[in-house]
Amino acid sequence: MRRRQLVLALASAGALTALVGCDRHGVAHAAAAAPQRSTGDFPPIDRTREQWGKLLPPDRYAVLFEHATERPFSSPLDRETRPGTYLCAACRLPLFRSADKFDSGTGWPSFIRAIPRRTGTRRDFKLILPRVEYHCARCGGHQGHIFDDGPPPTGQRWCNNGLALLFVPATDELPALLT
């Protein structure tokens, strides 16, 4: 009897995946669920996956454009505490301020918010239950997921892959990039 229940459960999950669509990486999504891109603040960068693959190290490429996830507690950015800015590792768009970073205890760099108009979101059904996935608004590189278990004032946890980010310590010139 247990075998029959397992087969039915797997068949149901397969049917759900077929209904919403599934890319070659097993990420289920609706056909119109492409990452949101820039709305005019900066021009989008449209490169092919092959072009990104030549520009980025394999581990960064896998996270940014194949939706891989790095191992928890493996990124030095999880423990970064200096003032500065976190940039998309693909296109270098500033995404987060260090003032919005906090230690979530999850093993990934976490933030309470992104810099406005720097990210786009879509629903992710990879774990069957929907999550909010976010991407760089300029290049579409996958950054992480947004959860509603963060600290005040937003109550959000923007859980980011460290490989998807570059950290730039604060300088006098950098604030001009953030406006």
Task: Walk me through what this model shows.
- The termini are far apart.
- The longest helix has 19 residues.
- The strands form two sheets. This protein has a six-stranded antiparallel sheet. Strands 2-1-9 form a three-stranded antiparallel sheet, with no helix packed on it.
- A hairpin with a 5-residue loop joins strand 1 and strand 2.
- The N terminus is likely disordered.
- It is α+β, with helices and mostly antiparallel strands.
- The protein has three helices and nine strands; from the N terminus they run αααβββββββββ.
Question: Key features?
Answer:
alpha+beta; 9 strands; 179 residues; 6-stranded antiparallel sheet
The strand line-up of the biggest sheet is 3-4-8-7-6-5
Overall 3D shape? globular
The biggest sheet, with number of strands, parallel, antiparallel or mixed sense and barrel status, is: 6 strands, antiparallel
- Average pLDDT metric: 79
Secondary-structure element order, as H and E?
Answer: HHHEEEEEEEEE
Task: Give the strand tally.
Answer: 9
Distance between the first and last residues' Cα: 62 Å
What would you call the structural class? alpha+beta
Computed CA radius of gyration, to the nearest angstrom = 18 Å
**Low-pLDDT residue spans:** 1-36
- Binned strand content: 15-25%
